[in-house]
Write a structure and sequence with these properties.
Layout: E1 7-12, H1 20-31, E2 34-41, E3 53-56, E4 63-72, E5 82-94, E6 97-104, E7 109-113, H2 121-130, H3 137-158, E8 165-170, H4 175-180, H5 192-203, E9 206-209, H6 210-214, E10 230-235
Parallel strand pairs: 2-4, 9-10
Antiparallel strand pairs: 1-7, 1-8, 2-3, 4-5, 5-6, 6-7, 8-10
Length: 236
């Protein structure tokens, strides 16, 4: 996958545990769904040990899949130990997409993967920047409807994990990604303030309030910031 081809939301949540049974039970309650747990252990060479699954029947109609993933903190130093994280597959009714993926990290950070705003980050920024100046009003209206449809869908999902603020960004090997997502040796949970500060200070990202841009209350000036120096705060 290339750089800046996908769009994600990052935020914080309050209920991590490395006990997969407790985590699956919590997810089932929050989403009112039965949970099928699948296991992936990257600390073990035998792939057959990763084939098992377990169903938590909570008496609901829907069944969600939860991947329980165990990985080393550092592959070069396996003795440093391992950690558990989770990926929840969420059925969604959106144009061209019927699933989203919610990753839960031990440090209290989540990422919601593959928001279908556009086919690339640069196209998404272009849509937001030029909607007000477009000579194709019908196309602009379609873009706006798509944004609002996706936003409504993820708000409904994220409120179930006690999230009311996210940052929308892309995949770009940012230093913030390395610090908070690819390294999980933390002794305390991370806050939204820490994430935003890191993006600004380490990656020189300019944070815009998403709905102010969508509603044309402020404009993005890409002559000042490149596409990869832009991310969006959304509060709901």
């Amino acid at each position: 996958m290339g750089i800046a081809k996908t769009m994600h939301a990052i935020g914080v949540y309050p209920f991590y545990t490395n006990d997969y049974r407790a985590f699956a039970t919590e997810i089932g309650k929050r989403f009112k769904a039965n949970i099928e747990v699948r296991f992936e252990d990257y600390t073990i060479d035998d792939e057959m040990l990763n084939k098992g699954k377990k169903v938590f029947d909570n008496g609901f109609k829907e069944m969600f899949r939860l991947n329980v993933i165990i990985d080393f903190y550092n592959y070069e130093h396996p003795a440093d130990g391992s950690y558990t994280y989770y990926v929840l597959t969420l059925p969604i009714d959106l144009i061209y997409q019927n699933e989203l993926f919610l990753e839960f990290c031990p440090n209290g950070i989540f990422q919601l993967y593959f928001l279908p705003f556009s086919n690339s980050w640069s196209s998404f920024i272009h849509d937001l920047k030029n909607r007000i100046n477009s000579v194709f009003p019908d196309q602009c209206e379609s873009i706006l409807k798509n944004i609002n449809r996706i936003r409504s869908a993820y708000i409904n999902l994220l409120k179930k994990i006690d999230s009311n603020e996210i940052i929308i960004w892309t995949d770009c090997h940012y230093q913030t990604e390395e610090k908070y997502l690819h390294s999980q040796q933390f002794t305390s949970e991370i806050s939204m303030v820490e994430l935003k500060t890191s993006m600004v200070e380490l990656d020189k990202i300019q944070l815009f309030y998403f709905m102010q841009v969508v509603n044309q209350e402020i404009k993005i000036d890409t002559n000042v910031h490149s596409d990869l120096q832009i991310a969006f705060i959304d509060k709901f």
